[in-house]
Amino acid sequence: MERIYRQYGGMVLAYLTRLCQNRELAQELTQETFYQAVRHINRFEGKSSVYTWLCGIAKHLYCDALRASRPAQPLEDALPAPEDFTEQLCRKDQAMAAHRLLHVLDEPYREVFTLRTFCDLSHAQIADLFGKSEAWSRVAYYRARQMLRSAMEEKENEEK
User: Fold this and answer.
1) Which of 25, 37, 105, 137 has the highest CB neighbour count under 10 A?
2) Domains and CATH numbers, the chain
């Protein structure tokens, strides 16, 4: 693992620094990336390069850090009003259906949509992550939304 760290540590740090635009956070996430890689080395199947696997771990840790940095919602706001409970359940069902459909999207649309919607990354950050232009990120996100919308309408029509 020491050899892997020497070989890929700087590259993972550079990747995370570009992703989060914060050197200190990138250093912490790099350390956590290699810690998680050691803990879960048995999950590495060799279907990708070691660098790609490490960047995948790093990306997930960064998304977790973004979610954790959001301000906590007061408990009163988190609990639904009794009359809104049924409506909220319907929205949760729709959200679950959308998540299921999201998994059938092809790459890069699935990842672009996930990074934009759930990780709150900007189009510039997504473009940087893929090594593409910001316009490419916007188009990919738009297409992913269109594909999801079409799939949801199709599913809705099947259920009628």
Assistant:
1) 137
2) 2-69 (1.10.1740.10), 80-159 (1.10.10.10)
Closest CA relative to residue 115, chosen from 10, 17, 20: 20
- Amino acid identity, position 14: A
CB 29 within 8 A of CB 58: yes
Task: Name the pTM for this structure.
Answer: 0.48
Higher-scoring residue by pLDDT: 85, 65? 65
pLDDT, tens digit (0-9, with 9 covering 90-100), for 98-121: 667 777 778 888 888 888 877 777
* Segments in 21-118 forming alpha helices (H): 23-39, 50-69, 75-78, 85-102, 109-117
Q: Among 43, 51, 46, 37, which residue's Cα sits nearest to residue 7?
A: 51
CA distance 7 to 123: 30
DSSP 100-151: HHHTTSPTTHHHHHHHHHTS---HHHHHHHHTS-HHHHHHHHHHHHHHHHHH
User: What's the Rg (C-alpha) of the chain?
Assistant: 19
